[in-house]
Specification:
The structure holds two protein chains of two kinds. Helices cover 68% and strands 3% of the residues of chain A. Chain A is mainly α. In chain A, strands 1-4 form a two-stranded antiparallel ribbon. A two-stranded antiparallel ribbon of chain A has the order 2-3. Chain B is α/β, with parallel strands linked by helices. In chain B, a hairpin with a 6-residue loop joins strand 13 and strand 14.
Chain lengths: 347, 532
């Protein structure tokens, strides 16, 4: 009995409750006319779609720079990569990988500048990061209009200049990862092999990075900066590295997200992108200064499962569209809950 | 005869904090108009004794104390400092508790302001009364006069020299009408010699007015100059209670440091050393509370060099400065090669390692496992415990090697833990200290700094830590610089002991030198005087 108790405490009540809530939703689904296989397929797709953005939070948490509410900085770099790749007329795998390639230098540059700023505001990173993200997004809202993009698939039809708010990826690289080696079972269930493999590879890279000498130093900086300093490690440098890595993963993450979603969303869209990611990793059991791959996987899965299932099931019950409201309530509620009990890490 | 009942008498005061006895059966009495000099090393129990006397809440929170405190022959038990104030006890702390933006008068009269009635008082109560400034100034001036010093009542505290701040504090305590007993904790620590003289004169004046004074100081010559009686505490026990008449500074110093070291701990036959390993010239270190002003010394190859001294004099600043943890300047050479200061990495690369006195703050990754704690620095500095992959393209932590390393030290240092995966914060202080040592040993340094290696750990762990240090010195040839507040320990293990006072080295003595000589150096007496 005691063993069970400690096991439950280790895993964390919120995760258990949400896990059972998700199970209950799956059980309830057929009774309200929602197909379980279709829903499961949706959950898997969204799991892979959002996963890398959640993964992007890990290095900064480990380095003690807090949750990266400035994830939009990386997302902007990804958007630059995506739009430039389209502008160059690259399609298919060339288009997607080209977009990733083009976004990397931007991500490194933005991440480096953003990291320098965060090193000057130690202790207040999360608040400052949020505003850095907001400013970056709004600044780029101006640039999207002014930059000389000219591809007719992207610019406003009536003026011939300035990017549209939503750009379709049809004919470029829509679902290129999702459909890669995808396994279709029946009419409703698709297993997005390519997408999950890509997410798995990204998780592996992050895992290896944290096991490297630099990753170890970074974790030590997050755990005790004075210890790291006494061990000859520059905490500022490690934090900078963590921000750059986080920003790069943010850039790649948004490109993966978009190819699954089928559209590039510009202007205000990246503004709140960090919140669902933060909610997911916290739900996964991470704290503000410790996060693991397991936290990312469990958190993303549970969070996306609720987001997918709750609106489906509840909308069918209530006969009205509540999905957006429910999404906001859950994701922000989760952040509040998790931040108030940020001290203990779940395994 | 009023003098028959002592003003204050302490009877069998005993106090322990979580099983560690800090005061054992301390009894002494203080008569009216008497100045009692209370001396003892750091940790001898002076502060705890004064806290008991003053009814500080920390005492009750930690289980109260044994014994009785009598004021004027009546048992007194103070629940908080206010009770003590009401009973006529005044206390002047080492740190100033003054409001910088207020004047002398305002500070002296704080919370005892003279006030005038007005209409608002009738309507809204006494909080609306206005201050009667002339009356306050008059009272403050009277208190200052009693001290016999020159202090302008309207000067802002922030604009005063430190000496005047100290006088303001004392004036505040003696302004209370009923004050009978004044406790001064290191009042002269921040004062220049001339200011200290004035303060001592003031104390004599106050004593002549019938106030009993307990004077705590590390400056022994002041104690002999001003006190009527000297009480020496050592390790929580009263070791001497004697009239100050005819007592030599040297004798007090010897009582203070006390205990003869057991001889068999010292096996120092025919030790031979190489050339200079570490040379330090004109080192200064800006470490808060442990400022090093100008320190030069040289450590020979294969030696255990001890650095002692009282808290706050700068002994801790020396290793922290050389290892680059605090801003420092001067010249440091290891085996003749210049070592850059202000850069921990440079010091580590040069082959030095440091076991910090701040175990939990600097020494450990509390939230990480033992293998991380032990292997981390060696990994970062020497690239050890990494395994290369794909022909050196990238390298990852070698968990197996880290585990082997951790287990080796767990066994060797007898670290009590559940295994190498246990988190450092879950260990006891002594075992944490062993982990810190393991971390430093894993670097295989040729020069090792250990700072307060036995602070806050139990006797068994103490012995083991010291034995291992000796072992590394004898068998591995590691030169060790050991900084400690425990003089005995230094004398037991070191080949030479330097005593630091006010940021400078007061003198370097062989460990066999008489205790009194060490005591004198600690008390800031000249080196020449000590060896005389």
């Amino acid at each position: 009995m005691n063993k069970l108790k400690t096991a439950v405490a280790d895993f964390g009540w919120p995760r258990i409750i949400i896990f059972f809530f998700v199970v209950a939703l799956f059980v309830a689904a057929p009774f309200v006319g929602v197909r379980v296989d279709g829903a499961l397929s949706d959950v898997l797709a969204r799991f892979g779609q959002n996963g890398i953005l959640v993964l992007a939070l890990v290095p900064m948490v480990q380095a003690g720079a807090g949750l990266n509410f400035g994830l939009p900085v990386g997302i902007i770099a990804g958007l630059l990569g995506g739009t430039l790749s389209m502008q160059f007329g690259w399609t298919g795998w060339v288009g997607f990988l080209g977009a990733v390639g083009v976004s990397l230098p931007f991500a490194v540059l933005f991440g480096w500048a953003y990291g320098l700023l965060l090193n000057k505001v130690k202790g207040e990173e999360m608040t400052i990061a949020m505003y850095v993200g907001f400013s970056m997004v709004t600044f780029f809202a101006i640039l999207w209009l002014l930059l000389p993009y000219s591809s007719p698939n992207m610019v406003w039809g009536y003026s011939g200049s300035g990017l549209r708010t939503t750009i379709t990826l049809d004919g470029y690289w829509t679902k290129i990862l999702n459909d890669f080696l995808a396994v279709r079972l029946g009419r409703f269930f698709v297993f997005p092999t390519g997408l999950l493999a890509f997410f798995g590879a990204a998780t592996g890279v992050m895992w290896l990075f944290l096991k490297s000498k630099t990753g170890t130093a970074m974790t030590a900086v997050g755990s005790n900066p004075d210890f790291a300093r006494a061990g000859g490690v520059s905490s500022d440098r490690m934090r900078l590295v963590s921000v750059v890595v986080s920003t790069v993963f943010g850039a790649v993450g948004i490109l993966v997200y978009q190819q699954s979603y089928g559209f590039i969303q510009l202007y205000q869209a990246p503004l709140y992108m960090a919140f669902p990611a933060v909610a997911a990793i916290l739900l996964g059991g991470a704290s503000v200064n410790k996060a693991s791959m397991v936290n990312v996987l469990v958190g993303t899965f549970l969070f996306q499962a609720i987001l997918t299932m709750t609106p489906n099931v509840i909308n069918s019950v209530l006969q009205t569209d509540m999905s957006e409201v429910i999404r906001i309530v859950i994701s922000n509620g989760m952040i509040i809950y998790a931040l108030t009990r940020k001290t203990k890490v779940s395994k | 005869m009023p003098d028959d009942t002592p003003l204050l008498s302490l009877e069998g005061i005993t106090k322990d904090f979580y099983g560690t006895t800090v005061l054992r059966d301390v009894s002494f009495a203080l008569r009216r108009g008497e100045i009692l000099g209370l001396v003892g090393e750091n940790g001898a129990g002076k502060t705890t004794l004064m806290r008991i006397l003053f009814g500080m809440p920390v005492i009750a929170e930690t289980g109260g104390f044994g014994g009785t405190v009598r004021i004027d022959g009546r048992p007194a038990s103070f629940r908080n400092p206010f009770d003590a104030l009401d009973a006529g006890i005044g206390m002047v702390h080492q740190e100033f508790s003054l409001i910088p933006g207020f004047t002398t008068t305002e500070n002296i009269m704080l919370n005892r302001e003279q006030s005038r009635r007005n209409v608002a008082v009738d309507l809204f109560g006494p909080r609306m009364a206005t201050l009667d400034r002339p009356a306050m100034t008059a009272r403050a001036s009277k208190a200052i006069e009693r001290l016999g010093v020159e202090l302008h009542p309207d000067t802002l505290v922030s604009e005063m020299p430190v000496g005047h701040k100290q006088f303001t504090e004392i004036a505040r305590e003696i302004d209370r009408e009923n004050v009978k007993l004044l406790v001064l904790d290191e009042p002269t620590a921040v004062l220049a010699e001339s200011e200290a003289e004035i303060l001592l004169a003031s104390l004599r004046r106050l004593a002549a007015q019938g106030i009993g004074i307990i004077f705590i100081s590390h400056r022994l010559h002041e104690v002999t100059a001003v006190a009527d009686r000297v009480v020496v505490l050592r390790d929580g026990q009263l070791v001497k209670d004697t009239s100050a008449k005819g007592v030599e500074v040297r004798e007090i110093a010897a009582w203070m440091v006390g205990r003869e070291v057991d001889a068999n701990a010292r096996v120092r036959s025919d030790r031979s050393f190489g050339g200079p390993a570490l040379e330090v010239e004109h080192l200064w270190v800006d470490m808060p509370g442990e400022t090093v002003r100008d320190v030069s010394f040289s450590v020979r190859e294969g030696e255990i060099f001890g650095i002692g001294g009282l808290a706050g004099q700068g002994k801790l600043g020396i290793p922290n400065g050389i290892m680059g943890l605090f801003a420092a300047g001067g010249e440091v050479r290891l085996h003749g090669k210049h070592v850059a200061l202000d850069a921990p990495r440079a010091a580590l690369d040069a082959g030095m390692a440091f076991v910090s006195e701040d175990r939990r703050g600097v020494g450990l990754l509390l939230d990480e496992s033992l293998d991380w704690n032990i292997a981390f620095t060696a990994m970062q500095v020497k690239g050890a415990y990494l395994r290369r992959w794909l022909g050196g393209l990238f390298s990852l932590r070698d968990e197996k090697a880290m585990r082997a390393l951790a287990e080796q030290y767990i066994e060797m240092l007898e670290i009590k833990c559940t295994g190498h995966r246990q988190k450092a914060k879950e260990l006891s202080g002594g075992n944490q200290q062993k982990v810190c040592l393991a971390k430093a040993f894993a670097l295989e340094p040729n020069l090792l700094f250990v700072s307060e290696p036995t602070r806050g750990i139990d006797v068994g762990a103490k012995k083991l830590v010291l034995d291992k240090l000796r072992h590394y010195n004898r068998d591995e040839g590691t030169t060790i610089v050991m900084v400690s507040s425990e003089l005995e320990e230094l004398r037991a293990i070191c080949d030479r002991v330097a005593i630091v006072d006010e940021g400078r080295i007061a003198g370097i003595l062989p460990p066999e030198a008489p205790l009194a000589d060490f005591g004198l150096l600690m008390a800031g007496e000249r080196a020449a005087e000590a060896s005389a």
